Amino acid sequence: MGRRSGRYEMAAGAPAPGGRRGGSDAICSFVICNDSSLRSQPIIFNPDFFVEKLRHEKPEVFTELVVSNITRLIDLPGAELAQLMGEEDPKLPGANSTASGFFRSLMSLKRKEKGVVFGSPLTEEGIAQVSQLIEYLHKNLRAEGLFRVPGNSIRQQILKDALNSGTDIDLDSGEFHSNDVATLLKMFLGELPEPLLTHKHFHAHLKIADLMLFDEKGNKTSTPDKERQIEALQLLFLILPAPNRSLLKLLLDLLYQTAKKQDKNKMSAHNLALMFAPHILWPRNVTANDLQENITKLNNGVTFMIKHSQKLFKAPAYIRECARLHYLGSRAHTSKDDLDLLTSGSKELQPLKSQKRSRLDTCHQEETQQRTEEALKELFRHVNNMPDSAKKKKLIRQFNKHPTALTPGSEVPTSPAPRRTRSRSFSGLIKRKVLGTPVILERKSRDTTPEPERVSKENVHLLQKCGSPAHMSQAKLKTLEGRKEESCRRMRTRLLSKDSSSL
Predict the structure, then answer these.
(1) Can you tell me the mean pLDDT for 491-498?
(2) Contact at 8 Å (CB) between 67 and 55?
(3) Which of 96, 308, 391, 428 yields a CA-CA distance of 20 to 30 A from 219?
(4) Whole-number Å distance between alpha carbons of 25 and 23
């Protein structure tokens, strides 16, 4: 959301005017909007909220989660892994060396002169003071040779004393030059008791610099594996102390913006890395001779951080998911409503399956009925095209008497008829004589009463005596059906004899 003067309030540890923070134990910073015109806008939720919450509330669990993923990317022996976890003191190059040069002694003497900000361990108050320098340099990135050209030593001492005493400084007054401020920022980083990236992360950074791509045969190439390097740095920055991580983010963002203006200031990302690597990554009390071949790796590592600084302070997606599940996963499974929803969802699958199966059966029946009706229409059309004769008239008359007969001009019924048992009727005999092959006929359900000529007197008497079939016993129904079939057989024989005599 864009800022509007007088319409926002800082809350939950956000830097207040003057560089002071509202609370030292806040785990996130956010802005409360008091503008009624912006309240309808969607709220952007911090995707790393649960990551920050887990790191603040359960640091041991968080560290174990992150380190386990770091070891998946880089190979750390037991001693180096213990140093990364803080279980052992870091073993740094040159730590056991007995050589003591003028440069080493001078650095040690400088760290004994501790002030409020310079030479003291990193604190929130120190970051608030130094952030004034970073904010000023953001406005003056076009100065040629920025961070390389030294400033005036007298003006730098005045500025340093003002920062140590906590005096308000107006850097925009024109009293100080951008080179004075840039040199003082490097001096602050160089006088910290340990580098900004800490001693215990030193060996991990050397291993990250060695992450290279592999060819098709599995051989290691000289091309850096940028994706794995970014992922490893994201994880490593997550377990930095909170003050170190905050200042590192401010510093890398400044160097990134400086490198973007290299056409004006002549300072590329590699040139800036040469200026800052000894202050933020090299171990304290060591010289270039102690590092030897590792100097190139360290300088290239800082160059990589500057170029990809906009991606390094986001937690990987799987870390965000693990942190979210740590707080929400167990609660979701223990909720009775959620369990009821899961069980009801599984039970609802069975009716859906049965409905789908019945729908398929209905479609199959409709397709069969349609084919039958098309065959009937074709039969009737064949009979209608026969030459006029007594035989044709008789056949048409018999078709019209049939309950399911369709003339060539009649419409096909839309709803499928229910299936019933196949019977040998007079119309079937006519079809076999005309076509020479039997045709399956699906009759409609017979809702009307049977014709008088097809029902015998005995059946009518039995129906009147026993009432509706719903109230008959099973034995009576069988007797009635048997008598019906017998009467139909007699009538079929009688009609067959008449038809043969006419033919």
Answers:
(1) 70
(2) no
(3) 308
(4) 6
Residue 246 CA to its chain's centroid (Å): 28
CA distance 17 to 10: 9
Give the separation between CA 304 and CA 221, rounded to whole angstroms.
18
Residue 9: count of CB within 10 angstroms of its CB:
10
Nearest to 85 by CA among 108, 105, 107, 62: 62
In three-state secondary structure terms, 242 is helix
Whether this model's pTM surpasses 0.70: no
DSSP state of 37: G
**Residue 186, amino acid:** K
How high is the pLDDT of residue 370?
A: 76
Q: Which of 97, 79, 310 is nearest to 200 (CA)?
A: 79
Which carries the bigger pLDDT value, residue 41 or residue 252? 252
Q: Which helix (H) or strand (E) holds 212?
A: strand 212-214
Query: Quick one: tokens of 2?
Result: 């864009």
Contacting residues for 395 by C-beta, under 8 A, at least 6 apart: 383, 386, 430, 434
Q: Strand 8-11 to strand 30-33: parallel, antiparallel, or no bridges (unpaired)?
A: antiparallel
The C-alpha atoms of residue 250 and residue 267 are separated, in whole angstroms, by 18
pLDDT band at 385 (very low <50, low <70, confident <90, very high): confident
Q: Which tokens go with 497?
A: 């004899």
CA distance 350 to 347: 6
Name residue, tokens 């001492």.
157
For the chain, helix (H) and strand (E) counts, in that order, are 20, 4
Is residue 303 classed exposed, middle or buried when 0-12, 13-18 and 19+ CB atoms within 10 A define those classes? buried
Tell me the average pLDDT across 172-199.
Answer: 93
pLDDT number for residue 358? 63
CA 462 to chain centre: 75
Single out the residue of 462, 371, 480 nearest to residue 416, CA to CA. 371
CA angle 179, 182, 187 (to 5 degrees): 120
CA gap 166, 162 in Å, rounded: 6
DSSP 8-class letter at 144? T
Q: How far lies 140's CA from each of 265, 425, 437, in Å? A: 10, 105, 101
Mean pLDDT of 126-146: 93
Distance from C-alpha of 202 to C-alpha of 206, rounded to nearest angstrom: 7
C-alpha 66/C-alpha 415 separation (Å) is 67
167 DSSP 8-state letter: -
Q: Report the amino acid identity of residue 72.
A: R
Q: How far apart are CA 280 and CA 285, in angstroms?
A: 13
**Amino acid letter for position 307:** K
Structure-token match 């040139």, residue found: 271
